[in-house]
Each structure stands twice: as structure tokens, then as C-alpha cells.
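Q: Here's a chain of 176 amino acids. Please give me its 3D structure as C-alpha cells.
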Amino acid sequence: MKPAFLKTTRKESRKTWWFRTMMNWYPMYFGTGGKILFWSGDNAEVHLRLKLNVWTYNYVGTIFGGSMFAACDPFYMVMLLRTLGRDYVVWDKSASIRFRKPARKPLYTVLKLTPEVIDEIKKKTLEHGHCTQLFVIQWLDAAGALHAEVERHCYIAGKEFYRKRKGLSQSPKLEI
């Protein structure tokens, strides 16, 4: 049974169902022990689960912190790329994790991109060419108890701004 906080009014499309299914079998993601339960058709909401199993347990028999960290790794970057489209460049910039309490039962998280966040990102990249957006991911058990928080910073830039900046930063510096 899914926890109540995983309920959504959004629908999954065939395209996002297929993408979710392929991602769940992608070896790099499969190895984290995480599972994508839902990916909305508009790419604005993703639900993840992480169970204690042979892939995820640590020395003391709880879910390995590295699994919590890795199981939520690519999602905001991918969600932003799919939402913003080809005119933007998106990279994971940095991340950190804070452990709140050990977990032996399945953990869940809901990742959301609100229209306000998307509008803010578009506004900042229009004004400055680029921006960094912070996303906080909370791993919760079925009762809603917090076990870990992951902070992820994504770098977002307009494609033209990024090309110009990349070209400048990678040009050789000659001293005469």
C-alpha cells in the first residue's frame, strides 16, 4: 500500500511510463536500489521508493545513506531538461545529505516542479543568462517520518549563453 502523500491528481503518459520503465532497468539507477513509482506526463512530478534489500543495506542493517543519496540523483536535472526544452542547458551542480534517523522500512519521496519555480528559472535565465536552483528532497517512511534530506543545486542556463561562456572558459590563455 502506498503512503497517502504519494497520491496525485496528475496522470502518467505513455511516453513517461516508458521512460520510467526504462530508467528502472537502467543499470546505473537499478544499482541504487531505488524505484521510480510514477512520472507525470508533464514531467513535473516524480515518486520514488527505496527499500532495504541486498543492494541497500549497510553494516548496521539500515538503509545505506549512499543509496538514499544516489536513488534521487538525476531526477531534478532530467525533469528540468524535459520541462524547459532544447533552449536550456541543465547540470547537477552540487548536493549534500543530512541524515535524520536510520531506516529499516521503505522510504518514499515526491519530487515536484511547480509552475512558479519554472517561471522563476525562466525569468532568472532571461535576465542573467543562467541561475542555480536549490531543490530539497525528503526521504519519508510510510507514516511520514523524515529519515534524510538531500539538497540538490541545479545549474540552468540559456543554451546560447552557455555556448558563449563555455567557449570563453575553454579558450587557451596565452601569456606574451
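Q: Can you summarize the key feature?
A: Residues 115-128 form the longest helix (14 residues).
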